[in-house]
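Format notes (please read before filing issues)

Several people have asked whether sequences and structure tokens are stored in separate files. They are not. Every record keeps both together, in the order shown below: the sequence lines, then the token lines. Line labels are part of the format and must not be stripped during preprocessing.
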Amino acid sequence: MGRQFRRASWVTSWAGDRSVQAGVAGASWSIAGTLARGLLPRSPLQQAVATSVVATAHYQLTATAWSALEALASKPGSRPSLRASMLVAGAAITGGVATSTATAQAANRSLPAAVAGTAGRFIAFAGLAGGAAAGWEELLQRRLGLRPGFDTTLVPAVATGAAVVGFSVALGARRAHRYGLVEPQRHAIRSADATTMIKAGGLGVASAVGLSALMVGEQLTARGLEHLGAKALGRNTGALGSLLAHGTVLGAMGAASAFGLKRITSVVERRDDIVEPAYPMPPTSPWVSAGPRSAMPFASMGKEGRRFVLMALTAHDITAATGEPAMDPVRVVGGYESTSDVAERARLTVQDMVDCGAFERNIICVGVPTGVGYFNYTVAEALEYLTGGNCATIVPQYALVPSALALGRTRDGEELTRLVLEGIRGRIEGLSPQSRPGVFVVGESLGANVALDIAMVPGGVSGMPLMAELGVAGGLYLGVPFRTELWNIWRANPEAVDPAGVLVRVSDPVLMPALPAGQGCHLMVIHD
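Then the structure lines:
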């Protein structure tokens, strides 16, 4: 009885579709990547949701991509032969890999190149998954005479995805060895109690069931659209009809996803606009943004910016801790919502520095924030204590959303920070040599990404020489992400972006080499 159910006609009709098999392979391939560690821990529920969303997206993209390839390999109203499927799969793999390789260098700076590279990888995998599905079908059903079912269609598809995962993990391990990131004594998971394991297992099963339901729903919708198309035309639409049906579903999912992401971003930004009970009013200090001498609106800098200016140390605080005379340090936040124009926001930030007295201090620290507009207050306070308040910390905001949602705004952040540095340089050049403050840059995590890539400008001077040209005497970059363009170039060829050797990488600040008196450097602290 179970065998009859397994071979039921609805199973044969659904699971026998090569687009479905390719999509299942794509979903299987994507799951391993969702388990990678991030900057923040994930609960089992968050992990289950992330895995489901990613797997669903990969299923739909891979299924649609293979439908497109099948349409290219077949005559109108028909399905491609095994030979045609293998030829188009080989062409897709070759072309996709070539496209991804050719655009790899430019992908970090060019959106079209990044899109082309991603599309190339998807097309290559779709070719691999669809070609494997055709091969499995030929072997299991035609050569061995097995009837279509889960064990002869979807199980091989999952095996295909798993094989690609194994290959990807091996490449990742090789890359980790190359970058010196392998630490045998360190484990990703130290312990897990029975409750956590049961919860994770239950959520995993629920995710699998939910993903299967979404896949079946997508296939039913696509089949329904394909049937309507065939009925309207009065003939079988073949592979082209499948492509149009899957493409329509993919387009609807894409539109819904784009709308959902926009809504989430909007909700997060509005949530960050709340005025916390602990910080209800603008500051009264004349040395910070939104204070009596500042024109920067208190409401423009988000929750983290408001905290930053209201938590500023005073001369009394510093003297109480150090026992030495001190002055009030300056804190300036270039509020993200002060204006939507990046150049104007930079101008307002520099003007606020003038209004708050930043150029009257010996040290100016440009603190590049994370996506949510946060700059590490312990870094700011350490600088203020060590200098006796004779410093100004400047935070130009390029977003007010968590870093994961701000990845697409880092170019704005680089431009904004570069313009602020140019404005600072212009002001300093008007001061007498003996009263010119030193300028430094500090960034953490996504802020480190933005801070380093300030120096990456196509054409002309770039890299560390550009930092020097902007008047930056040194910098501190904590937890530099791998996506940072300057880091990747420096890792492969240091002289290309740092001919003077001022960029230093350490795993701990205490390992920093001694420098001659008066010489600055740019220190990257790569931490876990």
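For reference, the curators noted about this record: DSSP finds 19 helices and seven strands in the chain. Confidence is low (pLDDT under 50) at residues 1-6.
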